[in-house]
Amino acid sequence: MDMEKIYALQNEEEQVKALYELFDEKERLIRSKSASVEFLTSVYYIEKYLQQGMKMLDIGAGSGEYSRYFADKGVAVTAVELSEKNIRDFREKITENMRIELMQGNALDLSVFTDESFDVVLLMGPLYHLKSKEDQQKCIREALRVLKKGGVIFFAFITHDIIFLTELMYNADYFKSSDFDHETMRLMDFPFVFHTIEEARKLTTLPELDTLYEIAVDGLAELVQKRIDAMDAESFSAYLRWHFMVCEKKEFLGASNHLLITAKKRQ
Length: 267
Prior knowledge:
The chain is α/β, with parallel strands linked by helices and 267 residues long. The protein has helices at residues 3-8, 12-22, 33-46, 65-72, 84-92, 133-145, 163-170, 197-204, 225-229, 233-246, 250-253; strands at 55-59, 76-81, 100-104, 118-123, 147-159, 194-195, 209-216, 258-265. It is globular and about 50 Å long.
């Protein structure tokens, strides 16, 4: 199925399922040094809050890179994923030592879980796909409902403004394309949904939450991917130290394909 046929689907759930039949999610975070920056940065911040015996919910788990990483370290992980293909890819990599419960489900309906069931909630994919503000808010409400008081939640967004330069890297004629409104310079929310920093903040600034971090989670990694991928281990380690030093700075937040907002649910 090509992108035009996916776009023609009227149901967002079916669009997402069809997109991931086409899109290879299982290699996205691990295919290269530059691609791994997003994963390594997210792990760095998630591990700040993990303690022995905690329960984690990974909503929109994709092909399971985060779930498997933390389950391999002894965390009890429940993973919810919509796409059949991602679930197939996920299952192939689960080993016997991993405490993972994997189920197919929709981020808009977590009724299978009781209130305040989890210590840590990862919302690392659903907000890439939900177009309406109502659905985005519903998704966040469900995630917060199942998060324990004092628990920590991680919201991932695809940022809006830098995408123009990212796409320009692959297409010299991108600024002639129909991917955005040429008057407002607003991207079309397909195949993914894009948020400015202000829009992401508005969604996650809620009475029951205290924001902990705003993180330019992959920073400029895709724009300079050839340089990063050519690095030896020593250089890449130094690059990551620099990235961790600057990724919380306000001036870097919009210069990243992905934004990670971390918040704590009030007691």
